[in-house]
Design brief:
228 residues; alpha/beta; Rossmann fold; Arc Repressor Mutant, subunit A; 2 domains; 4-stranded antiparallel beta sheet; 8 helices; globular; DNA-binding; phosphorelay response regulator activity; two-component regulatory system; transcription regulation; cis-regulatory region sequence-specific DNA binding
Length: 228
């Protein structure tokens, strides 16, 4: 059974989410503001967070940053903010997905399930696990850890999943469509802006010169390739 933390100051939305989530056997905690959300995230250790950005005491982006300071729990933003810049800001802060209000409950629940799946360890065989070494960083597929210059690198679940798909296909071109399907789910086929945002984040965290990447190579119009 998975635990969901719902963060929203609109009682009717909280009520609808709680009813629908509990009907699907989720355990649910609810927070009406950012401070309560941060406390419940630390106390209850949810498996996924559903977060509104327009909170009464602080901006939801600051809540994302606060949660990302210590955990990679999936964060699904649910917000009335619809501009591209606002979405990119939330994703850059560490959100894993973004749903705009008004929303369809079925779509929201599908994205929530996808976020939970991405955060779970892969069920691959032992021979799939290994450590991939580059001159700048190492990727431990079994432990789901990345080390760079002697330190752990913090990655969000989505960043890790994207990295994992590329690393498991070292040297091979992975198409945009395949990456979107593998990382975000079969209903995502055209959201190439997601890939641009997350590839930029991986490069900032792992490349010596993110503007001229050596390991995460773009094949314009086609996809991406990981090179050791």
């Amino acid at each position: 059974m998975h635990r969901v933390l719902v963060v929203d100051d609109e009682p009717q939305i909280v009520r609808a989410l709680v009813i629908n989530l509990k009907a699907r056997k989720y355990e649910v905690d609810a927070a009406p503001d950012g401070a309560t959300a941060l406390r419940l995230a630390a106390d209850r250790h949810p498996d996924v967070v559903v977060l509104d950005l327009g909170l009464p005491d602080m901006d939801g982006v600051d809540v994302i940053r606060g949660i990302r300071g210590w955990t990679r729990v999936p964060i699904l933003v649910l917000s009335a903010r619809q501009t591209s810049d606002e979405k990119v800001e939330a994703l850059d802060a560490g959100a894993d997905d973004y749903v705009t209000k008004p929303f369809g409950m079925d779509e929201l629940l599908a994205r929530l399930r996808a976020a939970v799946r991405r955060a779970e360890p892969p069920a691959g065989s032992a021979e799939d696990a290994g450590v991939i070494e580059t001159s700048e960083f190492s990727v431990d597929l079994a432990a789901k850890k990345v080390h760079r210059q002697g330190r752990d690198v913090r990655l969000t679940p989505t960043e890790w999943h994207l990295l994992e798909v590329l690393v498991r296909n070292t040297g091979r071109l992975v198409s945009q469509k395949q990456l979107l399907k593998e990382v975000w789910g079969p209903s995502y086929g055209t959201e190439t802006n997601y890939l641009r945002v997350y590839m930029a984040q991986l490069r900032r965290k792992l490349e010596t010169d993110p503007a001229h990447p050596r390991h995460f190579v773009t094949e314009p119009g086609m996809g991406y390739r990981f090179e050791k």
